[in-house]
Fold this protein.
Amino acid sequence: MKSATPPNGHVPQRPAPEREFTMRFTSTPRGARLARRLVSHRLNEWGYLYTTPVNETFTLITAELTANAVRHSHVPGRDFQVHLTAAGDTFRIEVTDTRAERPPASPGATDSLSESGRGLFLVATLADDWGVNPRPAAPGKTVWAELRVRAQGHPPTHRVAPEPSEIDLLLTTASLLRDDLGSRPEDASHGGRRP
């Protein structure tokens, strides 16, 4: 993971985004699912169709970051924000929550037999770069990821990914965790009973 702020304290200037999407979502499993779907829809509108590698990869990254914001950084009554930009060949997703005291765990800190905790490993594997920034004027943090694409809309192939069997396991686990967020009894209202 690379730090977003250089040691000298000066933040490098990024090119102005050509396309931009920002929205707040309720810090609930439903909010996380809606954020994932809207990012995928926005990419589709920008010419990266639902079935393209860029859309599928970035939607998965978004799903992991928003699920983490809901599951690990939820503050009752506070929303999380998603900010998606496209500038040149770089797509950037930023998920901002209001919980400062819970920084994300490093991707390698998860037990290989654990049923959860692989989300940031997946983000680190799929993204070209990612990191965490504190919110400058309020409590909380922003977890961000960037993906660079070629002109044909495909992510570059220079990254080294785990063996296919590991990726298959991660994708399956991520899908199950995303779908399971809404079915956890502690997430339901009415004293743990589903309405």
